[in-house]
Amino acid sequence: MNTDIDPVVIERVCSLATASSGPRTVIAVLADPLDRSVWVRLASSRRAEEAHRALTDFGLSVTATSDTRLHVSGWDLRLLRRRLGGLLAAVDDLTTEWDATAELASYYYDRRAEAGSEPELADVLADVESTMRRAVPIPHHTPYIDDVGSVLELITAAEDTYEQLICRHVDHAERVLTTRSASDSA
């Protein structure tokens, strides 16, 4: 597995982190040919703080060098292990919390129904998925691995499992709401 940091990925992480601020918050992303690090220039110091936080959460070692510039020097094993621990905790939660998903779906359905109209199933399911994705579990302890490539492979596998579980939970919420709707109309 290639463990080099990719400027395209860096730009994507920064753009997603600052997306609520509008377009063109990431001014420049440049790879430094001397040490393979990446320099990022953002539109404001606030955007730089948002990007710094997102890059750190992603597992990268980042230094703020000015109000609007960041220097990304590489992967940080400690941060990668924290990211992996959070993913493993999320996977464990989603593996066992089917009843919580059903309750969440019913909650959002009832909340939308109280607003006075028949809730749209897609809107309720979007609320459920959004809430599940925003949940931040307490990270698990991860095995001590000194190889960045191995940790990145584990993160990729955990992310794939997480995405599959999210889809299964949304499907479960849809079945719960469909069954509820059928029993309500009977």
Strand order of the largest sheet: 1-2-4-3
Structural class label: alpha+beta
Q: What Rg do the Cα atoms give?
A: 20 Å
Number of strands: 4
How is the main sheet built? 4 strands, antiparallel
Number of structural domains = 2
Work out the oligomeric state of the chains in this entry. Answer: single chain
Task: Please tally the helical runs, counting DSSP H or I stretches of 4 or more residues.
Answer: 6
What's the pLDDT, averaged over the residues? 90
Short overview:
The chain is of the alpha+beta class and 186 residues long. It contains six helices and four strands.
What's the layout of helices and strands?
Elements: H1 7-17, E1 26-31, E2 38-42, H2 45-58, E3 60-64, E4 69-75, H3 77-96, H4 98-114, H5 121-134, H6 148-185
Antiparallel strand pairs: 1-2, 2-4, 3-4
Can you walk through the features of this model?
It is built from 6 helices and 4 strands. α1 (7-17) crosses α2 (45-58), α4 crosses α6 (148-185) and α5 (121-134) runs antiparallel to α6. The termini are far apart. The protein is 61% helix and 12% strand. The longest helix is centred in the last third of the chain and has 38 residues, at 148-185. The protein folds into 2 domains: 7-75, 2-Layer Sandwich (Gyrase A, domain 2), CATH 3.30.1360; 78-185. A hairpin with a 4-residue loop joins β3 (60-64) and β4. With 186 residues, the chain is an alpha+beta fold. The chain has a 4-stranded antiparallel sheet.
